[in-house]
Known about the structure:
181 residues, mainly beta, Dna Ligase, domain 1, CATH 2.40.50.140, 2 domains, five-stranded mixed barrel, four-stranded antiparallel β-sheet, elongated
Amino acid sequence: MYEIVEAEEWIGLLVGTEESIDFAALQYLRDKLEGKLDPEIGGIIISIIDAKIVSEGVILPLPGDVQVYYVVRYKMLVFKPVQLEVVRGIVREAREIGIFVDLGPIDGFVYRNQIMDEPVEFLPERRGFKGVNTGRIIEINDVVRARITQIGKDRKGYGLRIGMTMRQPYLGKEEWIRGGS
């Protein structure tokens, strides 16, 4: 789910910037935050939309520090996956253990036993899977719908891991949902 979140924090900016102070704050926040996981928010920051300085500048008496510190209030667009949310994505990669689905800002993963309501066979030459009973094939670049079943941090703690299923009604490859094979 995408959400607009407002926040406020202290930032340090170099004295004598050419652009307006609000623009400098916006650029600083974009460089620092966009594309990062914020554990406090529980999502990935997609974009800093707006930033306004809301305090007078403060110079700290630290040797060699030439920054002026301001309180900035800003808005950001955040992708916050929600447990049991149905998402739409494109199959980006297929491996023996399952498929990776591009959800936009992050990939989700569907284990092979969660792809269909039947056993599946991995097709390395097609980079996809085939249903043993129906012969349905899912491969790279297919558009799918899946339900988020697990949300957690990746092993390094920098990003999110999204586990999904496609074994419920109205989930799976979109042409299957519409009644195709």
